[in-house]
Structures are given as C-alpha cells and as structure tokens.
C-alpha cells in the first residue's frame, strides 16, 4: 500500500493522519517538521517559502520533537508566520527572528450586554467616534502622551489599572495577568523606549484593527456560557502589538546576536534565524527585553480598551459597567516564553516560540486564570474584514500535538504589494458597506486594499483543522459590524 504524499517542488510531505503532514528529518535537520492543514490550505502554504523556512527552523539547537506550521501559515522573516518551535531552555537557544518584529502582537475581546438591534442606526456615530478617540496609523499618536515607559515595561497592565485605565478584573482575564515578571527595562535600548513613549495606546497600521462585532453562532453552549457569550451579542475585538518599541527591540538584538554569536549563526541555513545560546548573556538580555515589550503591548491594548469603553459610554449614554464591557481574554502571538512541557515522558523547561501562533492551553493547566482553569483557555482567531472571527478554547490534544498552541488568524494569501495592485481601498469599503453592512474607516485607502477580504485564507478552513485536531475547540463565531484601521 503506497503512503499518501504531497509534492511541493523541492519538498515531499508524508501524510501522517488527517490534517497532519510531515517533512521527514534528513541532512542537518535536528527534528522532522510538521504542517497541520487540509489539502486546500496545504496548496496555499506551499506557494511561498513557508516550507523552506519551516525546514530551516529544524536546524535550531535544542529544538524538540518537530517544528510546526499551523493551518494559517505563510512566509515570514526567517521563521514562518504560523510557526511553533520549542527549544530547550538549558541546552538550546532563543531566536528573535522566531518571535518576530511585532513582539506580543495579540488580540483581546471585550464583551458587552448590547445586542445587534442596539447598535443598528448607531454604526456611523460609533465608527467615527472610535476613529477619533483611538490613535491609528504609522508613527506617533497615543492615549497617554509622554507615557512612563519604564514603569509600563516593568509592570504591564498593573500600571494601567493603577493609573485608572482599567479594573482588577482586566488583570484576571489577561494572559499571565497582564505582566511578565521577568521583564527587565534595563535591557531595552533608549531608542526603543523613545519610540514607544508616544505610542502607548495606539493601533498602528498594517493588519491591526479595532472591530465591533456581533456573535452569530454558538457551537459549544456550555463553554460559551462559561465565557459569557451568546448569540446576537455585541463584542469588540482589538488587534495590535508593541508598536515601534517591539520592532526596535527585535532589530537591536538581531544585530547584537549576529555579531556576538557568529559561530552559531554560521551553523544555521538562514541568518534571519540568528539565535543566542541558552544561558548566554544575550539570551538573558533578549528574554528580559522581550518580556518588557510584551508588557508594553498588553498595556497598549488595555489603553485602547479604556478609550473604547469611554466611546461606548458617550454613544449609548450609560456607563461601561452597565453595558457589561468586561474583558473576555487577551491572547498573545509573536512571543517566546519559558514553559514546562512533557517530552519523551519527562518535564522540560522550553523556550516555546509562537510566531503568528496562539497559546491554547486546555483545562487544568496551572497558568490559566481561575475563571478558565476548569473550562480551558479562550483563544481568539480573527478573520478578515469581510469574514467572521472565532472564539475557541484550548483543546485537550494541544499539549501533545503543538506544545499547547493553535492558529492566530486567517493567514495571508497575497503580499501587501500584490494586494494593492489587485484592490482599490475605496471600492473595498463601499462593497463591504453595501453588500455586508460592514462599516470601515481607515487612515489610508492603501491599508484597506492590503487587508481586503480576498487577501486572506479561508478562516473557516483554518478553524476547522484546529477543531478536528483537538488543539483548539470552536466555541463561537462573530461577524463584523464596524472596523477602524491605521
């Protein structure tokens, strides 16, 4: 009986089981690589350099079990977006390129007790008010001018709550309660701090957005009830990261690591995977700086949450507490965290790199907040402006399959350049409003063209693979009402 394979140019993937494809270990690969996808998604994944980058990832010292590509995977900087790699925290390394430039780009969902009927007729007022009160676009603009960046880097969302930009419940519903204690502001360059100082509380540009949505479908009634979700409910999705500060941290450490650890770099097939050996000074410094940037990104999303609550108060003439505007969860991608995972029957501390991948811990994992420890971690997977987004919960097989991870979005099909050649931003906005009753406002028509619905993979496919593999269980689907972008 011939084993099923998938041929993609220089790569032949072996079919392990449904939705699991393996690139066998050969040559200098330290482990095999795995792609989690159906055949339609696999065709798209094989269209760019994703498989080459995934294979390159297997050369990193200390990598465990296999390098993994999620169903939304596509080509990134050195390491594929949608990639997961767990590297031994004692004998392995940590790689800024495997984290990415937008450290802790992530997404949070804010619930309300409003229904779609409550919103209808107010869409334009809400859209314009959100756009006026949440800074967007390249460069500066912030909720907090001349922010105390050192304190934000050190304390994360704790600072925001203390300063009046949130409540204690926000901490309880954020990954790691909104603060990485290993953060070391001293390892963040002055240039990075200066870039972040006037960007605290801003969306930025590119694929970042704030979107008001309605819940259209519930798939697991019991889990949705635990999450506080119901059909026709209005929720708000906020997607952004660490802005120029995180970008500068990555730039600084990539350069320093390339110069200091040239010997390790020469062993890797791509200099974009430049890594610092675990235990080295640069590994320690980068981890401290990355954790500080993580804190900045969480605070950034918290400040935008504060602005959003104030806008809703003005538009609907009642307090945000009366509207039930509570945080469901804030999840991170573009991150490398020390976590303990079982490998070959033994518990090991690993640097789990998730670049364009989301942590998806199942029920019982001690890192989860008490509110979700018995049901599993909420996972938020945004789709494009014209498609739905999804709420999942960490699946029971995620730890054994993916080091507790799943996808982070729909995943791009087109480059930004190609998208701008194919779409005209004003047309995209007009079509969304006329055909789908989705209201969009952006700093630039070019940004809308770059983020047109046709630029992305089918988020339904991505989520169905996650659900079928038991790494992220589908709980609810949402659909856009209005969206602001940089």
UniProtKB/TrEMBL annotation:
| Domain of life of the organism encoding this protein | Archaea
Q: What cofactor is this protein dependent on? A: Mn(2+)
Report keywords, A-Z. GTP-binding, Ligase, Manganese, Metal-binding, Nucleotide-binding
Binding residues annotated for GMP, in chain numbering:
207-211, 333-334, 382-385, 389, 408-411, 485
Entry's cofactor comment: Binds 2 manganese ions per subunit.
Enzyme superclass (EC): ligase
Q: List residues binding Mn(2+) 2.
A: 239, 333
E.C. number(s) listed in UniProt: 6.5.1.-
Single GO MF descriptor: GTP binding
Location of the region described as Disordered in the Swiss-Prot/TrEMBL record: 177-205
Residue numbers binding Mn(2+) 1: 102, 208
- Pfam families in the cross-refs: RtcB (PF01139)
- Which biological process terms from the Gene Ontology are attached to this UniProt entry? tRNA splicing, via endonucleolytic cleavage and ligation
Reaction catalysed by this chain? a 3'-end 3'-phospho-ribonucleotide-RNA + a 5'-end dephospho-ribonucleoside-RNA + GTP = a ribonucleotidyl-ribonucleotide-RNA + GMP + diphosphate; a 3'-end 2',3'-cyclophospho-ribonucleotide-RNA + a 5'-end dephospho-ribonucleoside-RNA + GTP + H2O = a ribonucleotidyl-ribonucleotide-RNA + GMP + diphosphate + H(+)
Record has GTP-binding as a keyword = yes
The question of whether Metal-binding is a record keyword is answered with yes
Active site at which residues?
Answer: 408
Query: Quaternary structure per UniProt?
Result: Monomer.
Provide the function of this protein: Essential for tRNA splicing and maturation. Acts by directly joining spliced tRNA halves to mature-sized tRNAs. Joins RNA with 2',3'-cyclic-phosphate or 3'-phosphate ends to RNA with 5'-hydroxy ends.
Family in the record: Belongs to the RtcB family.
Q: What is the protein's name according to its record?
A: tRNA-splicing ligase RtcB
Tell me which species this is from. Answer: Halovenus aranensis
């Amino acid at each position: 009986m011939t084993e099923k394979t998938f041929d993609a140019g220089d790569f032949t993937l072996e079919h392990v089981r449904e939705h699991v494809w393996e690139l066998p270990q050969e040559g200098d690969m330290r482990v095999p690589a795995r792609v989690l996808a159906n055949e339609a998604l696999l065709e798209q994944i094989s269209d760019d350099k994703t498989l080459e980058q995934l294979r390159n990832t297997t050369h990193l010292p200390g990598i465990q079990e296999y390098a993994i590509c999620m169903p939304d995977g596509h080509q990134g900087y050195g390491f594929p977006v949608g990639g997961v790699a767990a590297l031994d925290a004692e004998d392995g390394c940590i790689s800024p390129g495997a984290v990415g430039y937008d450290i802790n780009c992530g997404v949070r969902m804010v619930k309300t007790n409003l229904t779609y009927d409550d919103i209808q007729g107010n869409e334009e007022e809400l859209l314009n008010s959100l756009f006026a009160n949440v800074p967007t676009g390249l460069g500066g603009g912030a909720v907090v001018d001349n922010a105390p960046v050192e304190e934000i880097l050190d304390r994360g969302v704790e600072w925001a709550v203390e300063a009046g930009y949130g409540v204690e419940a926000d901490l309880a519903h954020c990954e790691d309660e909104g603060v990485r204690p290993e953060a070391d502001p001293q390892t963040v360059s002055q240039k990075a701090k200066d870039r972040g100082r006037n960007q605290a509380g801003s969306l930025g540009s590119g694929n970042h957005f704030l979107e008001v949505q309605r819940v259209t479908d519930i798939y697991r009634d019991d889990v949705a009830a635990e999450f506080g979700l119901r059909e026709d409910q209005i929720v708000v999705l906020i997607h952004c990261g660490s802005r120029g500060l995180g970008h500068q941290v990555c730039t600084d450490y990539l350069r320093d690591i390339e110069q200091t650890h040239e010997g390790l770099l020469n062993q890797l097939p791509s200099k974009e995977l430049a890594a610092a050996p675990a235990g080295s000074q640069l590994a320690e410094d980068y981890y401290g700086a990355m954790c500080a940037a993580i804190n900045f990104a969480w605070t950034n999303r918290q400040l935008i949450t504060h602005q959003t609550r104030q806008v809703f108060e003005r538009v609907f003439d009642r307090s945000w507490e009366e509207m039930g505007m509570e945080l469901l969860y804030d999840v991170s991608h573009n991150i490398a965290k020390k976590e303990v995972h079982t490998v070959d029957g033994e518990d090991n501390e690993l640097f789990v790199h998730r670049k364009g991948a989301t942590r998806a811990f199942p029920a019982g994992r001690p890192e989860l907040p008490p509110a979700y420890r018995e049901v599993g971690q909420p996972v938020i997977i945004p789709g494009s402006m014209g498609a739905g987004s999804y709420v999942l919960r960490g699946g029971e097989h995620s730890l054994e399959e993916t080091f507790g991870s799943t996808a982070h979005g729909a995943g791009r099909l087109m480059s930004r350049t190609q998208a701008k050649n194919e779409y005209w931003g004003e047309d995209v906005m007009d079509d969304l409003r006329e055909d789908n009753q989705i209201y969009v406002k952006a700093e630039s028509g070019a940004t809308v063209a770059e983020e047109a619905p046709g630029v992305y993979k089918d988020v339904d496919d991505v989520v169905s693979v996650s659900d079928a593999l038991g790494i992220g269980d589908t709980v609810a689907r949402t659909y856009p009402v209005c969206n602001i972008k940089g």
